[in-house]
Each structure stands twice: as structure tokens, then as C-alpha cells.
Amino acid sequence: MKCSIDFKGATGYYRSFGKGPVVMLVHGFIEEGAMWDTTAKALQKNYKVLVPDLPGFGASPLAKGHLPLSMELYAEYLLAILKQEKVKKLVLLGHSMGGYIALYFAEKYGSMLAGFGLVNSHCFEDSAQKKINRKKGIAFVKQHGTRVFVTELYNSIFHESFKKKNPQNRTLIKKLVAQALKYSPEAIMAANAAMMHREDKSEVLKNATVPVLFINGKDDESAPIAYTLKQAAYPKIADIHFFSNCKHMCVFERRRETIAAINGFCGLAWHF
Questions:
Q1: Which strand (E) or helix (H) includes residue 95?
Q2: Quick check: 177 and 119 in contact, CB under 8 A?
Q3: What pLDDT is recorded for position 272?
Q4: For 39-85, what is each residue's pLDDT tens digit?
């Protein structure tokens, strides 16, 4: 079911699947909630699944009141949805940038969480080189638009074995690129800047009193396995999954395994 919410001068959108204890699935940079469709449909048998389109992506427009974008603002957006849905407790999972947002949410609204998780994500701030690369990306989009930036990004975050496995996988990537080309340059630049300015959230994991899920591809360059090994030692209770021949898109590259890991974690978190 598609739902709407008024947030800082614009109407945002999210979808609701099923009934039961609440799980929220948050998409990442240059993505939208639809990336979670298969996962949400698998979880809806036992849970109420909320899947937002973050401001600037999917069906949710970017408004002047959203600028400058930040992880804090995105976390406020999630909170607004949860308040509208009258949710008191939930499991919160985020992919990539969605994981950064989940950490900010956990820091500020941790009492609402039965558990949270990072899918192809990490708690560390950008390295100096990563910040330089983000600035270059912002400048490139400003000068040349989004087509080359988006196309190169999506072609870099899937493992070669996934691309070669069958034609349907290559079609999927083309579909995701076409979808991402609908997002405005302003939204892409603002989100990239928001990630560049985010802070290290190691302490959030170290202070976590609820289970924390980590899912990663062993060949992920955006969330390197070394980062996940380091951060997975921080929480008191960590549920850790690594997938071989997989990069930054476990949700697609290891769909069945990722759904199984999330389903198992939700059961753990809700019975903790």
C-alpha cells in the first residue's frame, strides 16, 4: 500500500506491506524503496514492513526545506513516518547510505529499536581520499549531468560474475540505471554532500544494547570487508553474514541469502 506524509514542505512517499511487528527497510544513494520489493514481500508474512522513498529519490521530491540534506534530516524523515504509523518499536535496516542513516537514527532514537542493521554499509566517516572523490563526483554532476555518473556507478557496484551469470542480471542493472536517471542532479549532489559530511558512528555500535545485523559482499569496495570485520566486533550482539563473489548489492546479488539473513535477524531481534 502506497502512503504519503507531509515533511518539511513536500509530500514524501513510503509503502507498507503486511501486518505484525514493524521492520523498516531504507534504501541507499541513488536508489529507491523499490529495491527492497522482493525482501518486503518475503517478510510481510510475519511483519509489517515499511519502505520509504527518501527525499529526492523514488516518488519523494526534494524540497527547499530539505536542504542541505544530512543524515540527521533523513533520520527525522524516518521518524515522521513512524510517528504517522504510530510505531513504538521496530527493526531498522539500511543499505549503504541507508545504513548511515540507521546509525544516526539509532544514536538519537535508539529506545525505539528492537534491533538494527547495516547492509553493505559501515559506521566510519569518509576517508580523506573518499571526500575528495565525492567532491569530484559533485562537480562532475554539476557540469555534465547525471547520465555518465549514474551509469558508471551502477556498473561498478555489481560483481562481474553476477553480470555474466545470465541476461536477466544485465537487464536488471540497465533498469536500475534508467530508474536512477529520473532523479534530479540536485538530489544526487545533495545526498553525496550529506554522506561526505557525516560523522564516525563507531560509538553507536559500541553502545548498542540490541542485536545488530551486518551483511556484506566480500568484494565490496564501497564497504570493504576490513571495515565490517572491525565494526562487527563493536556490538554486544552481532549477526554477521559475508557473501563470496559479491560486491555492494547483496540485496540483488545474493537475494535469497540476504532475505534469509534478514528474516532470521528479525526473529532474533523481536525475541531478544
A1: strand 90-95
A2: no
A3: 87
A4: 999 999 999 999 999 999 999 999 999 999 999 999 999 999 999 99
How far is residue 42's CA from residue 141's CA, in Å, rounded to a whole number?
36
Q: Look up residue 134 and give its three cell numbers.
A: 565525492
Other beta carbons within 10 Å of 143: 8
CA distance 110 to 123: 15
In angstroms, what CA-CA distances link 159 with 163, 238, 246, 247, 249? 7, 26, 5, 5, 9
Angle between helices 185-196 and 97-109 (to 10 degrees): 60
Q: Is the pLDDT of residue 14 over 90?
A: yes
Q: Which residues contact 122 (CB under 8 A, 6 or more apart)?
A: 99, 223, 224, 227, 228, 231
- pLDDT beyond 90 at 8: yes
Identity at 148, one-letter amino acid code: V
Q: Is the dihedral of CA 47, 106, 5, 188 positive or negative?
A: negative
Here the cell at position 254 is: 545474493
Residue reference for cell 551486518: 214
Separation of alpha carbons 37 and 153, rounded Å: 22
Is residue 243's pLDDT more than 90? yes
Q: What's the maximum distance between 2 C-alpha atoms anywhere in the chain?
A: 51
Distance CA 218, CA 208 (A): 25
Q: Find out whether 193 and 73 touch, Cβ atoms under 8 Å.
A: no
Decide: helix, strand or coil at residue 174.
helix
Cβ pair 93, 102 in contact under 8 A: yes
DSSP state at residue 245: S
